[in-house]
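so my prof wants the structure for this chain in the C-alpha cells format not the other one, which i didnt know existed until like an hour ago. anyway here's the sequence
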Amino acid sequence: MSYQIIDGKAISEQIKEECRKKVAAYKEKGIEITLAVIQVGADPASSVYVRNKKRACEFCGMTSLSYELPEETTHEELLTLIRKLNADDKVNGILVQLPLPKHIDEDLVIQAIDPKKDVDGFHPQSVGALCIGQPGFVSCTPAGIIELLKRSNIEIAGKECVVIGRSNIVGKPMALLLLRENGTVTVCHSRTKDLKEVTKRADILIVAIGKPKFITGDYVKEGAVVIDVGIHRNEDNKLCGDVDFESVAEKTSAITPVPGGVGPMTIAMLMHNCVGSVELI
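here's what i got, hopefully its the right format
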C-alpha cells in the first residue's frame, strides 16, 4: 500500500510564514509582539528547545526576552519574575520551559501565569476553556497535530480517533480537540485492556505513550492515519518515535515521521499563539 508521509517540517514553515506576515502587519500599526521565555537550570534538551523558540521568534519578526535562571533559583524568585512579566504591557506571551527542577512546584508556576499570556495553553483556565468550547490558548503539540491533519486534507469528522496517552500536555487536550472537530474519540492508557483491539478500530491513531517503537504493525488497521508524538534516541543514538515506522508505515494511508513530523509543529503553533495573544491583551 502506498502511504503519504505527513511533512511536519513543510507545514510548520507555512504556519511560521503566515505568522511572519501577521507580525509585519501588526508592526505597521505600531504593535510589537514579545515572548518571554524562562528557563531554570541547564537541562540540555530544554536548552535546545529554548534556542529553537528564539530562532522562530526571530524568523517571525517577534521580540524574544530570555531569562536563563540558575538551577538553585527559589520558587518565590521564579514567581516574582512571572508577576513582573504579567504586569508588563509590552510582554504578550510568557513561557516557562518544563521540566522545572524538583524543588519548584510546576502546577503553581503554571497557575501564576496570566491566562491572557499563557501561550503554552497549560493554565487551568485555558484547559477549562477548551473543555467547554470557549476561546483560549490551546496546548501547542495537540493544536499542531490538528493542523497537520487539516493541511494534509485528512477528514476528522465522523472518524474513529484513538489517542494513546492521557497526559495534560498532549493526551487530554488532543482528545478534546478531536471531539471539537467531530471525531469519535477513545483515550487509551497504561490500564487499557486489550490495547490492540482498541487501536485496530482507529481511522486516526495518535500515539503519545512515551515508549520507543512501542506501536508495531499489528496495532494498526489497514489504511489508518498514524501520528507519532514520541521522540527518543535508540541504541544507535538515532531519533525514533513511539511508533515502529518500518512495520507500521506500509499499513497506513498517512503517517508522520520522527524526526520531521509533530516536532516542528509545536514551535510553529507557539508562534501562532503569540500572534493570537495580541487580541487578548
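also thought this was worth mentioning. The first helix runs from residue 8 to 28.
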